[in-house]
Design goal:
By secondary structure, this protein is mostly beta strands. It has four helices and 34 strands. 3% of the residues lie in helices and 62% in strands. The strands form six sheets. The protein has a 20-stranded antiparallel beta sheet that branches. A five-stranded mixed beta sheet has the order 3-9-10-7-8. A hairpin with a 4-residue loop joins strand 25 and strand 26. The two termini are 13 Å apart.
């Protein structure tokens, strides 16, 4: 089975902006002399490497673009990133597709894993970094098609500024944000970001509200040592809208339902999701000398997530513009998760044997403790979780309750990783990147409903190889090979059959070649061709969501191109193109 996709996206911004939105910003002018991936914070690529020297396809969306295009979600950003798209995510979570691979877990914040299922806000984000291709060396498990890393705004020492952002639309949705930085002394600074958002759109009964606050403190222990502390509180409460069902067509495949754009196929009172998150972070950066620096970071996060919903569980038949009946199903899914992550990195730049070296040595320990249950709904009319009812708008739903226990599991994951990478300057024009990562995953699952326990430990080494050729300082050609694997941890262990076949790791290899051209200051062109080979994996049966099926493997080949930057002092362009061809092997 194969599938091809062609995606294009373009954005042209001028100095004049119109629409029902307003914004006010007050801050000092910042002159950028070079463009790096988080050069100071050592996120993403974790080394002080110019973008043109990174041997893989990537996209950076900074806070200026986020503000100018009024982005408020990860889905907004994916529309302007070649090779990415957003899926529906059941109306309660970020769910993106990177190079043909869907994921709800390959998200990071300041380089730390952020794999809880929720909608990530952008109010406190300095920039969003999208790295495509398998990325196990830098990020560990997952990242089959790539990863998304959010870089948080940090307190700035020695500066005062304040910014306000607000918007409102004709549906009644609104947004308000504040960004305030205050210099406490010559060696300390405090920054507070906060937002509140009221949700609404054209869909009947859809609404909600979310908000958050993120104070961040920074102080310099010495000219060589900086400490960053932050705490983030998030509160998200919204109606879950699963969209509309498909429509049955006689003699052909099902098609999207038309003519019911506003109709809510669920319960306005019971379709809801809530999230309360507490995230605390501490980081120490120290520069030993001009050629050696390092950092240690600790993050603890506590998430309390609930979603419950009724939805149309089967295609509908439309006759003369009317629907006779609709089948409903539903469930309630509460999750509590606690994450502890500790990371440390040493970066050294030196010369040896006549070659320049940029060496990265890293280590990580993480613990993830998850409790998850699932309760199917039961209709009083038939004592079953599915029921066909006459269609009406709005739906008239008979009595039911989320009372049938379908799952109750706990999982505890311990991760220990060490990795080494060396970027070697063989000459002024030729560079090579060599690296490898060792990961140890120790996972324990307790199935409280079945009275069953399961444990598994996986240890894997994943390599990375990159080659960069620069015929000129502003042009680079590259080729790369990378690998990643996905041990069945976290959310996956809450739903799988607990046996060795279903819980084995899944492996993916990425081959990529591309070109990067800095046409002039602030304007760049990038293009890449790639091939992703994914080994045997399990997935949900599209015809029966309660059943797992095994796929022998898949292969995705494609091409991406992007032109982004400033055309003039007043006009900027962001345009991209992607083409992908995916093939899935035999299914058992």
């Amino acid at each position: 089975m194969s599938r091809s996709a062609l995606i294009t996206s373009t954005f042209l911004a001028g100095s004049l902006v119109s629409g029902a939105a307003f914004a006010a910003e007050y801050e000092d002018e910042v002159i950028v002399t070079g463009r790096y991936l988080s050069i100071d914070a050592l996120n993403a690529v974790k080394t002080p490497t110019p973008i043109i020297d990174v041997p893989q396809s990537l996209t950076i969306v900074d806070d200026i673009q986020i503000r100018d295009q009024a982005f408020t979600s990860i889905a907004d950003i994916t529309r302007f990133a070649p090779g990415l798209s957003a899926s529906q995510g059941e109306g309660h979570r970020d769910a993106i597709i990177i190079r043909g691979n869907q994921t709800t877990a390959d998200f990071f914040q300041d380089g730390a894993r952020d794999d809880v299922q929720y909608y990530r806000p952008l109010y406190n984000v300095e920039q969003v970094e999208i790295l495509r291709g398998a990325n196990a060396l830098l990020f560990g498990r997952g990242g089959v098609g790539g990863i998304i890393n959010r870089v948080s705004k940090k307190a700035e020492i020695g500066d005062h500024f304040a910014g306000l952002t607000g918007s409102v639309d004709t549906f009644g949705a609104y947004y308000g944000g504040v960004d305030v930085n205050y210099s406490l002394s010559e060696t300390a600074g405090l920054r507070v970001n906060a937002f509140i958002e009221g949700l609404n759109n054209h869909r009947d009964f859809y609404d909600g509200m979310r908000g958050g606050i993120n104070p961040a403190l920074a102080f310099e222990v010495s000219p060589q040592t900086r400490v960053d502390l932050s705490y983030e509180y998030l509160d998200d409460n919204r109606v879950i809208d699963r969209g509309v069902p498909s429509q049955i067509v006689a003699g052909g495949p099902n098609v999207p339902l038309e003519g019911f754009d506003n109709t809510f196929f669920g319960s306005a009172a019971e379709n809801k999701t809530t999230l309360i998150a507490h995230i605390a972070k501490a980081r120490i950066d120290h520069q030993f000398n001009d050629r050696l620096r390092g950092n240690v970071s600790v993050q603890y996060a506590d998430y309390d997530k609930l979603y419950q919903n009724l939805y149309a569980s089967a295609p509908v038949t439309v006759s003369n513009g009317s629907i006779a009946s609709v089948e409903l199903d539903g469930y309630r899914d509460p999750t509590q998760r606690k994450n502890l992550q500790i990371q440390g990195h040493i970066v050294s730049e030196f010369e040896a044997a006549g070659f320049g070296h940029t060496v990265l040595i890293g280590g990580e320990y993480a613990n993830q403790d998850t409790e998850n249950a699932r309760f199917d709904n039961v209709f009083a009319a038939n004592n079953d979780d599915q029921l066909v009812i006459p269609f009406s708008d709005p739906l008239s739903i008979p009595a039911y309750g989320f009372v049938k226990a379908a799952r109750d599991r706990q999982s505890d994951v311990d991760v220990l990783s060490v990795y080494l990478q060396d970027q070697i300057d063989l000459s002024r024009a030729l560079k090579i990147v060599l690296g490898a990562r060792f990961d140890s995953f120790d996972i324990d699952v307790n199935d409280l409903k079945a009275g069953q326990t399961f444990a598994r430990k996986d240890e894997e080494i994943t390599p990375r190889l990159g080659l960069i050729y620069k015929p000129a300082e502003n042009v680079s050609f590259y080729g790369s090979f990378s690998q990643t694997f996905v041990p069945r941890s976290g959310d996956q262990f809450l739903t799988l059959n607990l046996d060795s076949a279903n819980t084995r790791p899944q492996f993916t290899e990425n081959l990529e070649g591309g070109v990067k051209w800095d046409i002039r200051s602030g304007l760049s062109f990038t293009a890449a061709i790639f091939q992703l080979d994914r080994e045997s994996f399990t997935t949900v049966d599209p015809s029966d969501a309660s059943r797992q099926i095994t796929v022998d493997g898949s292969k995705t080949t494609g091409f991406e191109a992007m032109l982004a930057g400033a055309l003039t002092d007043k006009w900027s362009l962001n345009t991209g193109y992607s083409y992908m061809d995916g093939k899935v092997s035999d299914v058992d």
